[in-house]
Amino acid sequence: QLQYSLGVAYFNAAQYEKAVPVLTRASGAQPQNADVRRMLAMALLNAGDYGRAADLLRTDPALPKDPSLQYAYGVALVRSNGDSGPGDGHGSRDGAAYGKERDARL
Q: What are phi and psi of 60, to 5 degrees?
């Protein structure tokens, strides 16, 4: 839980590159926790690692019902172009609105 809270704090401070490893550890400790995986996906998206973000979002149980999550998944798919490496020069803030909106609901 501490790792997740720290990752969310980094995410909310727009320090996505710092959030990714912390949320990765939190996801490893709680692999079945969809909220942790979703936050990791949003951090990856904002850090520019579109392929890994798409991989996580593809299996998110909320994807069929959540338009914001569908948008983030679409952005990740389009930006990844089959590349799962970080960054492609297109910017990396597209998922920020979803993450902040989600945090406001929590």
A: -70, 125
Q: Using one digit for the tens of pLDDT, what is the confidence trace for 24-41?
A: 999 999 999 999 999 999
Q: 52 CB contacts (<8 Å, ≥6 apart)?
A: 41, 44, 84
Gap between the Cα atoms of 25 and 92, Å rounded: 22
For the record, the structure tokens of 34 come out as: 């969809």
Helices 96-105 and 2-12 meet at what angle, rounded to 10? Answer: 130
- pTM of the entire structure? 0.76
For residue 30, the one-letter residue type is Q
The 10s digit of each residue's pLDDT in 11-26 is 999 999 999 999 999 9
Buried b (16+ CB within 10 A) or exposed e, 68-94: ebbebbebbbebbeeeeeeeeeeebeb
Cβ-based neighbour number of residue 64 at 10 Å = 8
